[in-house]
Design a protein that fits this description.
Blueprint lengths: L9 H9 L2 H4 L1 E10 L5 E12 L5 E10 L1 H23 L3 E6 L4 E4 L1 H7 L3 H4 L10 H8 L3 H4 L1 E10 L5 E12 L5 E10 L1 H23 L4 E4 L5 E4 L1 H7 L20 H14 L7 E6 L5 E12 L5 E10 L1 H33 L1
Antiparallel strand pairs: 1-2, 2-3, 4-5, 4-8, 6-7, 7-8, 9-10, 9-13, 11-12, 12-13
Amino acid sequence: MAPVKSLYPDEEWKKIREENVRQKGIKYKLETKMIRKNHCTFDVELSLCILKSAEGNTVGSVGIIKDITKLKKTERKLIESEKRYRTIFDNSAVAITISDENECIVSWNKFAENLLHMNKDELFMKPVKSLYPQEEWEKLRSQNIRQKGMQHCIETKMIKGNSEKIDVCLSLSVIKNYNEDIIGSIGIIQDNSKQKNIENYLRKSEKKFRQLYQNAPIPYHTLTPEGIITNVNDTWCKIFGYPTDEVIGKSIFDFIDKKEKNSAKSSFKNKIDSLKPYTGGHERTFNTKSGEKRVFIIHDFLYFDENQNLEFIQTTMEDITNRKHIENELKLSEEKFRDLQELWNQNSLDRLEK
């Protein structure tokens, strides 16, 4: 004899009364809440049927109550998951598209509209194939992604709404239902245009550097932090008389004159320890393949990474051999002149004394 009203929170009872079940006679699957003996509420699915007498008078009702607490909890989790998914989907810094089993676009985020320069009407049910140049689409199809189920970081090109082609990095995932039938795919698209432009610029810059390096009128060599030669230019090979393959992989100290080798190693270590990109030029005597001694002004430029670890040394060499010969000859001439001057002065003094 507990009043039915007492089984429901007030606001839920009010909703049930608003359904006018007594007038309608029946109500199926009404979601509401009920109160347990411990005063806790729980979710239920309620179906009500009015009982009437032979004369048509209401004599009671039948309530069929199904506990849907677990179901509602699952639904709430799904709603929360959907909200998180939509937040990520809509605010992602990359373009995301979802296609159906016929490879037509059915969903996308705002970034996709901005990247592709297309609006909702242009994107909805647009064949995915039409977003790619023909040759790029054929490359994608050759990846057999539907069989693999997933493919990451595919570099390709896409066509924007203004017909402009852009470089992108594409990741694809196939969507399947519970029967493992393919029902669509998700594409994550990252604009790769800036990266490709930088790569092209670096390639051109590297090409220019290589041309300058190889064709420079002065000798260049590149060393590891241990002093191993990793590269030399054509002028270096001409002056020293070695082909490139006889030089790469050898220690630079193998080419330094024996008298200066120890001091060269000590100087090299001090430069590295200083952590300075440049410490000034200095003279160094080298031996060529023919045994000729040549003198150079050495300029070592040290390149460090962001952690101050030495990556390599770039060296330019100014050949001053001829200048040193002239300086030595001039020095000898000056010494001879001084000797003659002293002899002349001595002779003049002797004559005066006589």
